[in-house]
Amino acid sequence: MIQLFHPLLTLIATASDSLLAKYVLYLKNENRILRDRAPGEIHTKPHARAQLRKYGKPLEKAINELITIITPGTFHHWVREEKRSRKNKPIGRPGKSAVLRELILKISSETGFGYTRILGELRKLGISQVCRQTVKNILKEEEIGPSPKRSTGTWDQFLKAHAETLWACDFFTKRAATPRGLIDLYVLVFMHLETREFLATPSTRNPDSAWVTQQANAFVNQDTNRDEKPTSLIHDRDTKFSAEFKQLLKNKGIQPKMLPIRSPNLNARVERFVLTIKYEALNHFNAFGETQLDYLVLESVGSYNKYRAHNSREFLPPCCTEPPP
């Protein structure tokens, strides 16, 4: 199974600039220690050289201070060789058409399939004048390794691959005035990643685990015209998302996906919706109790779903398949 989160990536994603500099300094010294324990020349294979060039070239002159597995001179020699090889006219049969090449790269990037499975997908499309070696050569020219070495997909790739049946949820709060003073009211929202459609629960003063489980039950039993039912639900590590909450989802065929620690950016679409609804609607009103807040949220979410255009949907609102009148 693809490992979406690596401890080092989580640290880097949440680090400040100064802390990130300390990470780099530590890793640099750790690599130097490991290099000292491997005396003699380290021989690298073509794929390893391609990876070093790919990630080293954007660093420009800074690579001279970071690289330890080889000398900076060797690295720059590899880069010059790569440039010369691209200038030379290839010998042999003409390459495959640009359309076929683009199709193979598209299948590879969107599925992570290996050479044989990509060949199988091409056969399904009626493309038979291609062999496994051709697929391998095209991917190799783009410095794309075999399938097992491409198994560490990004979070964005995961979202795109599962967007049709993937939902996310999170809380937001609104200060309300009551006869007993100001209180915080909590609302739980659910978002469909593909269409950007939002559903909002009634507000509550006490969002305990029992209330959250109750709202999750209402969510999974929602009456919708959508063809694809939810299969996954992203949520953070809030203790309100209890074992009962997760078991309820699993019983309905929905897999709960808990985010790692300190990673709000992984649920950025929901965070952005909360910012939008507060900035465009809720911040302009004073709420006097749950009933008024529920009305404001209901109207705001309804307007968002019917009229809010999204670039990712070719400027269509979440609940529309064609532009509104």
Q: What is the CATH superfamily of the largest domain?
A: Ribonuclease H-like superfamily/Ribonuclease H
Mean pLDDT: 80
Helix content: 40-55%
SSE arrangement, N to C: HHHHHHHHHEEEHEHEHH
Number of domains: 3
Q: Report strand order across the widest sheet.
A: 3-2-1-4-5
Residue runs with pLDDT of under 50 for 5 or more positions: 1-6
Strand content: 5-15%
N-end to C-end Cα span: 45 Å
Q: What is the general shape?
A: extended
Q: Please report the number of helical segments.
A: 13
What is this structure, in a nutshell?
This protein is an alpha/beta fold and 325 residues long.
What's the SSE blueprint?
Elements: H1 7-13, H2 17-36, H3 46-56, H4 63-66, H5 72-87, H6 98-111, H7 115-124, H8 132-141, H9 155-162, E1 166-178, E2 181-192, E3 198-200, H10 209-220, E4 232-235, H11 243-251, E5 255-258, H12 268-280, H13 290-307
Parallel strand pairs: 1-4, 4-5
Antiparallel strand pairs: 1-2, 2-3
Helix pairs in contact: 7-8, 10-11
Organism: Gimesia panareensis
Domain Integrase catalytic: 144-325
Pfam family, one: rve_3
Structure description:
This is Integrase core domain protein. Residues 144-325 form the Integrase catalytic domain. GO terms for molecular function: nucleic acid binding. InterPro entries: Integrase_cat-core, RNaseH-like_sf, RNaseH_sf. By secondary structure, this protein is an alpha/beta fold. The chain has 3 domains: 7-87, no CATH class; 98-152, no CATH class; 160-313, 2-Layer Sandwich (Nucleotidyltransferase, domain 5). Helices cover 47% and strands 11% of the residues. The chain has 13 helices and 5 strands. It has a 5-stranded mixed sheet, with helices on both faces. Helix 7 crosses helix 8 (132-141) and helix 10 (209-220) packs parallel to helix 11. The two termini are 45 Å apart.
